[in-house]
Write a structure and sequence with these properties.
Strand 8 and strand 9 form a beta hairpin. The two termini are about 20 Å apart. Helix 4 packs across helix 5 and helix 10 crosses helix 11. The protein has about 650 residues and is of the alpha/beta class. The protein is globular, with a radius of gyration of 26 Å. Strands 3-4-2-5-10-1-11 form a seven-stranded parallel sheet, sandwiched between helices. Strands 14-15-13-16-17-12-18 form a seven-stranded parallel sheet, with helices on both faces. It has 27 helices and 18 strands.
């Protein structure tokens, strides 16, 4: 099969004939060959494919030629949709094959007819702000074939109505549901069972590996290969799904669903409705007990406070009372039985916060009106290794950012991979010619209160003299807001700031502007693909070390230290390097792109570890003066427009 891959991706192969802008790349052919060999041997393969290698085609071609069942997992639902609706049919068409394919998302992405009917039945009890969104959902429900909520584009995926008309593992009635025959989740699973290629996302994959039953557990044993794209996200995703969470939302949803089921099936049980209301009040009281403001911290810092202890007691008492009452009427309806089971499950989860848990960290997160309590494993390596060992399959891990200073030790260790084959494929883009690296001198240290102001003063001449667009990445929302305030009255070009519109809307406006300034943090460090003159300068404020005080990080640091390791070397530095590579990867997205990467953190010069960051970046030519930066930005590169895309 490896020879077939080389031909397919070669000068005179079917992809070159099918795509006008296809450029054969040796690195892509090397990746495809390695993937084909791993699939045949049912082995583990780790591939870092730099920007421009075309890793999507690098795994799709051997996957389609293999002919066995392949599960492809991506980092986000947006990437999942792009892979399924664009890349997969394109490659299949070029190869002249017609595999059965399926797109499968978590159940919360599909309309639940039963919960829609329950919400409609609330009538006048429904909150007024939900009436119009519910009407739009109802109109769409009569037309949709697949029930994917992404189809209803005039409602955002975070719209308040969706939790009311979609299901979760907790509230799904399964085969006992009166709408089971019309269930979109069941239909999606059936399509996936019949498919040779199934496209999922990491959250769905790990939910099933962790036995949460999110949607396709029955498919896992039959897969010949798992391809995990954007694999740098896996350790954090695995930690979330191998852990346990209790949230205010889950508890209030339980109370609301219980009331709805009682109204429909046990209207004579007003006392049980009072118990549901009492649970809702206990949730609100517990949030108040956690203190004012938003934030996160270790559970141990709050667990012994009298108000928190009392709040936890009240939650358990209200849950127990509701569970007992629901079980007494469970025979009247499956919905009542389900609510009773959910109450017992929430009690079990709450019990995990009555004392310390081995090999895990307990922590909390609080918002203005909500909260969540978490138990997160300190190390997912052993857990993932155990689950992966249950399947006689190939496991392909790929991303543009997996290595640190040319080595994969950090990723392999976190994922419990023992001696996998590792392949490092550099970007084919000519960074020496098309990119410059600028480390501004004379900036204060990042912990200096003057730092962000000095950064903006340094950046303003670059922004003003840049004919194209500028992307400013921040490690904190506080710094982003300060920079936005300082820039707002100093620019004669569009200023786009995270939080002022959705991510997709901001990116589209940035592309259309051609010379805009986009300020982003956190979620903007990866997955941003802006090509051509619309983005020719990326400015990064600080080295992206994880924020101090994060309870999970602090617990993992303590564990490494107790084991005689070096937390900075073994955890903090590698994670920061991978994050910086993601941010820097926003700059050059196509073969003719040109731009400047500006790293503003003076520690990259003054600290010995700065060399590790520099060595992990693409080989950009350094410049030492802002005048050289401006001259390079003004040099008038002949670029594609921002809407043109290179092949995968």
């Amino acid at each position: 099969m490896s020879q077939d891959c080389e031909h397919v991706l070669g000068d005179d192969g079917p992809l070159a004939r099918a795509l006008e802008d296809f450029h054969p790349r040796q690195a892509q052919q090397d990746m495809a060959q390695a993937v084909a060999e791993a699939m045949q041997a049912q082995a583990a393969l780790v591939v870092e494919a730099g920007t421009g290698v075309g890793k999507t085609f690098g795994y799709l071609v051997p996957a389609l030629l293999d002919g066995g069942k392949v599960i492809i997992s991506t980092g986000t639902r947006n990437l999942q949709d792009q892979l399924y609706h664009k890349d997969l049919p394109l490659v299949a068409g070029a190869l002249g094959v017609s595999p059965r394919t399926a797109l499968l998302k978590g159940r919360s992405n599909y309309l639940c007819p039963h919960r829609l009917n329950m919400t409609l039945a609330e009538g006048r009890m429904l909150e007024p702000r939900l009436v119009e969104p519910l009407r739009r959902v109802q109109a769409w429900a009569d037309k949709t074939r697949h029930g994917d909520i992404a189809e209803l584009t005039d409602l955002g995926e975070d719209a308040e109505i969706w939790p009311r008309v979609t299901s979760t593992v907790d509230n799904c009635l399964g085969q006992d549901c009166p709408e089971y025959a019309a269930c979109h989740v069941v239909q999606a699973r059936r399509r996936a069972q019949e498919a040779e290629v199934v496209v999922v996302n990491h959250h769905l994959l790990f939910a099933d590996l962790a036995l949460r039953g999110e949607g396709f557990g029955e498919l896992l044993p039959s897969a010949n290969a798992f391809v995990l794209d954007e694999a740098h996200q896996l350790p954090d995703v695995a930690g979330n799904f191998f852990g346990v969470t209790v949230s205010a939302r889950a508890l209030t949803d339980l109370a609301r669903d219980s009331i709805a089921e009682l109204l429909n099936n046990a209207p004579d049980m007003g006392e049980l409705r009072d118990r549901s209301d009492a649970l809702t009040q206990a949730v609100k009281a517990f949030r108040l007990a956690l203190g004012e403001g938003s934030g996160r911290g270790p559970w141990v810092s709050l667990a012994t406070k009298p108000a928190v202890e009392q709040g936890l007691d009240d939650l358990e008492n209200r849950l127990t009372s509701l569970a007992d009452g629901l079980e007494a009427v469970a025979e009247r309806a499956k919905g009542l039985e389900s609510c009773g089971r959910r109450a017992r499950e929430q009690l079990e989860r709450l019990s995990l916060f009555r004392g310390p848990q081995d090999n895990a960290v307990q922590w909390y997160e609080a918002w203005t009106r909500s909260f969540s309590l978490h138990v997160t494993p300190l190390d997912v390596a052993a857990l993932f290794k155990e689950h992966r060992g249950s399947y006689q399959s190939a496991w392909i891990f790929t991303s543009a950012t997996l290595s640190v200073d040319g080595a994969f030790d950090h990723f392999n260790r976190r994922m419990g991979l023992e001696d996998p084959r590792c392949l490092l494929l550099d970007s084919p883009f000519d960074y020496q010619t098309h990119a410059r690296l600028f480390l501004p001198p004379r900036l204060p240290e990042p912990n200096d209160g003057r730092f962000t102001g000095a950064l903006v003063d340094m950046a303003l001449p670059l922004i003003r003299d840049n004919p194209g667009g500028t992307f400013m990445l921040f490690t904190s929302l506080k710094a982003l807001r300060e920079a936005a305030q300082r820039l707002r009255d100093s620019l004669d070009r569009p200023l786009l700031v995270q939080g002022e519109a959705s991510r997709n809307v901001l990116l589209e406006r940035f592309r259309e502007a051609g010379n805009g300034v986009l300020l982003g943090s956190h979620s903007f460090w990866e997955g941003v693909d802006v090509r051509g003159t619309a983005l020719t300068c990326v400015i990064i404020d600080r080295l992206p070390f994880a924020a101090p005080g994060d309870p999970v990080l602090e617990a993992r640091i303590a564990r490494i230290r107790q084991g005689g390791g070096n937390p900075f070397r073994d955890l903090q530095l590698p994670q920061a390097v991978i994050s910086l590579k993601q941010g820097a990867g926003r700059l050059i997205r196509d073969i003719s792109d040109q731009g400047v990467l500006v790293l503003c953190d003076p520690r990259i010069r003054s600290k010995s570890y700065g060399k590790t960051f520099i060595k992990s970046l693409p080989p950009m030519q350094p410049v030492t003066d802002d005048r050289d930066v401006i001259q390079f930005l003004r040099s008038g590169p002949s670029l594609q427009t921002s809407h043109e895309r290179a092949p995968q």
